[in-house]
UniProtKB/TrEMBL annotation:
Signal peptide: none
Pfam families per UniProt: HTH_30, PucR
Organism, scientific name: Actinomadura miaoliensis
Residues covered by the PucR C-terminal helix-turn-helix domain: 168-226
Highest rank taxon of the organism: Bacteria
Organismal lineage: Bacteria, Bacillati, Actinomycetota, Actinomycetes, Streptosporangiales
Domain Purine catabolism PurC-like residues, every copy: 5-119
Protein name: PucR family transcriptional regulator
Amino acid sequence: MRVAELLEDPELRLRPLACRDRLDRPVRQVFVTDLPDPSRYLDGGELVLTGLMWRRGPYDSAPFVAALVAKQVAALGAGEAVLPVPDDLVAACDRYGLPLVAVPRETPLSRLMAIVVRRLDAEAGALGDVPATHAALLERLPADARREFRRRVLGELISYDRRHRGELLATLTEFLACSGSWTVCARRLNLHVNTLRYRIGRIEELTGRDLSSLDDRVDLLLALRAE
């Protein structure tokens, strides 16, 4: 698939911001990150999605984009859940030749990722039924194996919610949908940020995962989808 195909979907409401003439690059994988330098996790050909939590100021954009270009990613999708895509990121993408699209707040990065995964999986199936992403690999597992994976990752969390009528699972789902933004997540859940921080702390204790770690976020996201 190509990023240009996603722009044709009116429900996603994606907007091209930089290097529009290069949006026909093929996408081989999708990768979500808020690391300032995610290059060690990239193989090339990815559509990189970010909530921009790595950006502390205008000086951060050029190094971030340069790292992506060095790994030959296909394009960058910047989420606008918190703020509009900053001009310095657009300028950096233009400078380094990296296609950039804005992902509006109405389109959670998790939803866009799921759509890309399904399309890549469908294409892989047409080419010989070879999964193209980690999410697609998970879907290839037998239902019993998926349920066991979910139990091992989220079992304590689910049990806690049942015993205490908690809302930790829902909180985790929303937190990941907000790309780890404390402010946006607290607003959507109508919580004080301190209450949200307490809940996330309990989630980390019960799951043994660190929500500041990309690898742990991926584990939790896949477990949520492994029903």
